[in-house]
Amino acid sequence: MEYDVKDLSLSHVGKGMVEWAAKSMPVLKDIMDRFSKEKPLTGFVVGACLHVTTETAMLVITLKQAGADVFLCASNPLSTQDAVAAYLVSEHKIPVFAIKGEDNDTYYKHIESVLEGGPNITMDDGADLVSTLHTRHKDLIGGVIGGSEETTTGVIRLKAMAEQGALAYPIIAVNDAKTKFLFDNRYGTGQSTIDGIIRATNRLIAGANFVVSGYGWCGKGLARRAQGMGANVIITEIDPLAALEATMDGFRVMPMEEAATIGDFFCTVTGDCSVLRKEHFLTMKDGAIVANSGHFNVEIGIESLEEISKAHREIRPFVEEYTLEDGRNIYLLAQGRLVNLGAAEGHPSAVMDMSFANQALSAEYLRYNSDKLRPDVYPVPEDIDKNIARLKLESMGIKIDTLTPEQEKYLSSWNMGT
Length: 418
Ligand code: ADE
Description:
Blueprint: H1 11-22, H2 26-38, E1 45-49, H3 54-65, E2 69-73, H4 82-92, E3 96-97, H5 104-115, E4 121-124, H6 128-136, E5 146-149, H7 152-163, E6 171-173, H8 178-201, E7 209-213, H9 217-228, E8 232-236, H10 240-248, E9 252-253, H11 256-262, E10 265-268, H12 278-281, E11 288-292, H13 302-307, E12 309-316, E13 319-324, E14 329-333, H14 339-342, H15 349-369, E15 377-379, H16 382-395, H17 405-411
Parallel strand pairs: 1-2, 1-4, 2-3, 4-5, 5-6, 6-15, 7-8, 7-10, 8-9, 10-11, 11-14
Antiparallel strand pairs: 12-13, 13-14
Helix pairs in contact: 1-3, 1-4, 2-3, 2-15, 3-15, 5-6, 8-9, 8-15, 15-16
The structure holds adenine.
Adenine binds near residues 51, 192, 341, 347 and 352.
């Protein structure tokens, strides 16, 4: 079996880490138990490009239990947990191609290695696997019945492909399931981003001006958590509706031009490029800390930061100090890559439980339904989404009410008024 991981002797560490995660993933564990009896993916090859974490380990083990052959590479050069990669290779015989800190060439070489497995189903986080397949490995497209996409950025890319007629097979937008974005994007990104910033810097957040760029679900979660830590949170936005929401949620909203001059922490979560630019760096306070939690490392203009700096060094792990001509320092975290996975461990298992339940059930759905789907981007079927919410509540010991027959009748009638 071919694989490329940092060090197989780390496997025993990975084993404990994955066992720990499993304790917070009851919904996925339920699916794993059913899949291991029913084997719905027998004969299928799944090519997965995901952050190689303990939670992803639980997902790929579930897929293997379902009968699939799984090949896994990283969806970001900095997010791999090397011990987990070693554990999947040694104990589960899953070919993993991922090393934390790999360079760009190795990152793409690892994607190619997964594609060499000849996937029938692609599972992507950011759409790099799908875009490589559609550009450099068109010959393999015929063997693919469908795919799924984990994140907002990937869904945006895939919708652009579909609109331009470039998408060759159906893809399920796992990101857009309610049991995904309302929890993973909001509470997951909220907590893990704060975790990454704190692990990298060990700085006090209470009393600081904390600038969040982007008030989507990730920005909302991050802003709320930063506020909970005692920060004065400032939001920057380009969308009037999101800006209005942020205002009425109690945050200060202003253009980056203004926020740049007062921020102590900056974190971008917009999904767009060049959010922090030269003109902003030039007005930042000495000691400003700059991070990104969006999928790609395009949100912070690192080249322009380098251009205006006279010196640059790594002052501690995941913290790079840029010294400007006038002596001010700006600190960049995790090379501008997603700080929650680069400097911490990504979202907690309890939210990934629902995200990856969606992934596993979407793979099963594709196996039985892909022949009815044209090449396009599709939502997770509502019954799957609702069922995951139900199972998660059950696992938490929370019961809810059901409609009485009278209530059901009332909701389907239109002629009963005051
Ligand atoms: N994306 C964000 N957090 C993650 C995690 N813990 N595992 C896999 N993908 C993630």
